UniProtKB/TrEMBL annotation:
InterPro entries in alphabetical order: BUG (IPR005064), Bug_dom1 (IPR042100)
Family from the record: Belongs to the UPF0065 (bug) family.
UniProt cross-references to PROSITE patterns, sorted A to Z: PROKAR_LIPOPROTEIN (PS51257)
Key words, A-Z: Signal
Signal peptide region: 1-22
Keyword RNA-binding attached: no
Protein name from the UniProt record: Tripartite-type tricarboxylate transporter, receptor component TctC
Length: 358
């Protein structure tokens, strides 16, 4: 199995917070943080952002190495992680919404069980959809002028996180033809850059890291974000992209698009499962409590750094980071949808793409 590496070097000991737990010491060890996607996407940028910060806060300041294990829209890596056992706390696994959705939809390729794993950190994210310059000129805050355009989209698969944009575009009455099989959203962006795709979306970290440059150069036009949730569960502007319309706003302004009913309820349910709790760091089943507590304390120290908000905004966006019990509750929210939403999406996948999950 080919695995690509990214090494995060430990920072100076002078910058360290107090050790997480004195009983656990990772001195001289290497933490392998496995990401089940390619090295060009948002999950890669997320892990590469947190890895050196985690290295600073874990006792002994181990080197944190981010490994990439793409395949089958992340189920390959997740199935691999399901078989891993605790070994000195040196294996960490990162999931995304594209790992959660096949689990939620009972995808037959799924051989992993979230409840077996030990979450130590969870964070939210957002997403931005954007158009090529030609079609971007037609966008007026609605999709009314885009309904006669045939778009091409590079997709990881209809049962992955991509179902959120695919369903959104269909609700808007747009004709978007997905090309399935890419290994990460970064590969979709590369298709867009080469002109092989004419519409794209990226999670916030990947958008900030690459797609925003395309916008700055006039090679892409932002269309909408998926939004964020307020305390009452309402969809509001994404705090990282407050000047970009949300899908809800675009839908409300577009003829034939409704923000109520079965389609909307299903879209919102999977948006909630896939974005407010979008990326989660896990230790394998059987990890001792002291190791779990050490990682929890380390991630807690990371999120409480004085400069965290500033550096996170530029790399992964303005989103909450959960640890400990908060991470456990966030994981529960991210791996649960209603039976009605699941049934709607299952039927839609069959009708729209011939994807059967039975």
């Amino acid at each position: 199995m080919t695995i690509k590496y990214f090494a995060a070097t430990a920072a100076s000991a002078a910058c360290l917070a107090a050790p997480a737990l004195a009983e656990v010491d990772f001195a001289g060890k290497t933490i392998e943080w496995v990401i089940p996607f390619s090295e060009t996407g948002g999950s890669a940028k997320w892990a590469n952002f947190f890895a050196p910060l985690l290295s600073e806060e874990l006792p002994g300041n181990p080197t944190v190495v981010v490994k990439f294990m793409p395949g089958a829209g992340s189920t390959k890596g997740a199935n691999w992680f399901q078989e891993q056992e605790h070994d000195e706390g040196t294996v960490l696994f990162g999931t995304s919404g594209s790992t959660q959705f096949p689990y939620l939809l009972d995808d037959p390729r799924v051989r992993y069980e979230y409840s077996d794993w030990k979450p130590v950190m969870a964070s939210g994210t957002g997403g931005v959809a954007y158009l090529n310059p030609t079609d971007g000129e037609k966008f007026d805050g609605t999709a009314n002028n885009l309904k006669d355009v045939n778009f091409i989209y590079g997709s990881q698969g209809a049962t992955r996180l991509d179902l959120v944009p695919l369903l959104a575009w269909e609700m808007l009455g747009m004709n978007v033809e997905p090309v399935f099989g890419i290994k990460g959203r970064g590969d979709g962006r590369l298709m867009f850059e080469r002109g092989e795709a004419t519409i794209d979306y990226q999670t916030s970290s990947s958008y900030l890291g690459a797609s925003a440059d395309l916008v700055e150069k006039g090679q892409a036009v932002p269309m909408m974000t998926w939004g964020a949730l307020d305390e009452d569960g309402n969809i509001v502007r994404d705090p990282t992209f407050p000047d970009i319309l949300t899908f809800k706003e675009v839908c409300e302004a577009t003829e034939g698009c409704e923000t109520e009913g079965e389609a909307w309820d299903a879209w919102k349910a999977f948006f909630i499962a896939g974005f407010p709790v979008q990326k989660i760091a896990f230790l394998p089943a059987g990890t001792p409590d002291d190791v779990i507590e050490t990682y929890t304390a380390a991630f807690d120290a990371v999120r409480n750094r004085e400069d965290f908000a500033q550096i996170a905004e530029k790399r992964v966006g303005k989103y909450p980071v959960f640890v400990g019990e908060g991470a456990a509750k966030a994981t529960q929210r991210g791996t649960t949808v209603s039976a009605e939403a699941k049934a709607f999406v299952t039927n839609w996948l069959q009708e729209a793409y011939g994807v059967s999950l039975k």
